[in-house]
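On clarity, I found the account of how folds are encoded harder to follow than it need be. Since the whole study asks how a given chain folds, the encoding of that fold should be made plain. For the editor and my fellow referees, an illustration may be useful. An entry of this sort, consisting of the sequence and the corresponding backbone structure tokens, reads as follows:

:::
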Amino acid sequence: MSDLSGMWNITGVEGLFSIVVELLSIFFAWMLLQEVKWETFFQFPRRPKARMLQVLLAVAIGHLFAGFILQYWGYSVMLRSFVE
């Protein structure tokens, strides 16, 4: 029974790690998108429609970056087991 609880604990930690990486990636994408001069794309860049586009872009870019990081992490774990 303790083996099963240990497996659930590891799965929980991996899930928490994935969520943190995803949220941090979205946050960093949002911070980078703040540097874009949105005036060239929108007449009023502070309007809700322009902000919604920025949020959606931040989520999309952050999700892609987090996927890359998590896949890289998974591959490095697989390589570690290959070397051992």
